[in-house]
User: What shape does this take?
Amino acid sequence: MRSSRQSLFSVSIDGQETLASPGLTVAAVLLATGRRAFGSAPGRGRPRGVYCGMGTCFDCTVKINGLERQRACVTLIAPGMEIVTALREQDATDTTP
Amino acid sequence: MSALDRDLVIIGGGPAGMAAALEARRHGVQTLLIDERTSLGGQIYRQPAPGPRPPTREARTGRVIADEVAASGAEIRLQTTVWGATGNELAVACADSSCARIRARKIIVAAGAYDRPIAFPGWTLPGVMTAGCAHALVTTQHVVPGKRILVAGSGALIVSFAAQLHRHGANVVGVLEAATRPTVAAVTRLIAAGASAPSVLFAGARQFTYLRRKRVPLRYSHVIVRATGDREVSEAAIARVDRDWQPIPGTEETIDVDTVCLGYGFLSSSELTRLMGCAHFYDDSLGGWIPRRDAYMRTSVDGVYAVGDGAGVGGSLLAESEGRLAGATAARDLGMLAGASPTRTVQDLTRRVERLERLRRALANLFPFGTGVYQLAKPETIVCRCEEVTQAQLLAAIGAGCHTADAVKSITRAGMGYCQGRNCGVHVEALVNVPSGALAQDRQGFRTRAPVKPIPISVLAEERFQEDPTAREWAIAMSARQRTGRSSEE
Assistant: This one.
């Protein structure tokens, strides 16, 4: 997230406006904002974080621009991106692991 | 959907695939190189985001080679996934969700590898990740994944990764090496074998020294047996293990951590060669299911070659040499091998591969793999991460009479999820094959099926409804291959 200021752009994470810099993955941006359990298990939806970091496991998937189950670890962040993590849904429904 | 015809298609743009493309182009072979990612280079040559630090040596090397490939006249298709394959035809899905079928006279599979999954209680908790993941986060994404990091696994690479994490400001609370401290004999053999690539040894020794100087504890014969925490990992239980990596009762202790990085080596991504019906054998130290090859990188299926970590994990130097050899072999098999003494070319490349293969074996012998680490799961441990299938459910299915990995899969759904069994496969196979005393050559894995990677349903729809008389024949040919393609001895 440390980069020259002029290249920063704005994205939305669970409705919050956040600044991000180009070239980073969505996962890196989420981690840099202190979010770790942002994914959910494909089965019963228990909290997951980044596990494989190379697009194999699908643990880190989030909703990006309305598309479900996008892999945060291999998707590059882009200006105006709208990201919805599992953290928001967990808070809403309180799915205890 | 469109159909393409190509002389040579190379799957995977890492060190092996790029070297194969360069060599094939040297002989004038029409070459198509396919990769899933947004840039060439594979995992080792990942390109960093703009950030405070200069790119790593790997990233710089990768950029140079990728530029050479681009200038070689090879056709490059990025963000393209091969999800189905026969011996001479590939089904690919592109980034825009369109699909295509590609007919190829020769196919070089250079699919790479992924971290060997080891299931233990708590391995699905956020904060537990592969060492490769943590390494990529610090070196290419400028993010340190935690404040108290434990690195656990085996092999020279975890020491190197731990040192790099530390250099990037991470607090590495310890490194656990499951194998015993290397013997003098093993180190001597490594130094002898390393004469062909001394830089590898020097780089490794430098990382060991660095960790010692920074007082990062490195403990041999130790594994992580449990990760616990509420929503995220907050504590790791570690234990001493025997030579087979079985935990020794009464040696357990706990460490406060917020991140666990796992690096138990790699498994070959051999899904495509298995799908194509190539003969395979199983070897834990090589990376699981490995395609059988001749000295020139040909698999048992005519016109299909396999190279790099996807055909036995050996690192980037070996991968590059294998790639060049396969590129030359494919050119020869197409009758296009160019140069003053073409036979010499192939012979030289073969000898280089043999030398580096000796180095790979010596390195593997330094930290021999122990299968005890496949038995860390408890009944309530989730083994299949995607479908959340527990060890107890797997054992119940086996107890109820499922004697093959595929039968367990049908009953429990283990291996049916997004990752297509890449993470639970070795565990299900170990449970099914070990109790009956099956020997390695009788081992049976999940049958590989298309699609080998998740693809949007729109891709399948386009494939299905295309007005193409060969589509049906193609589907039949592929399912026939799958029926006969059970990985086995020839």
Notes: The two ends of chain A are 31 Å apart (CA to CA).
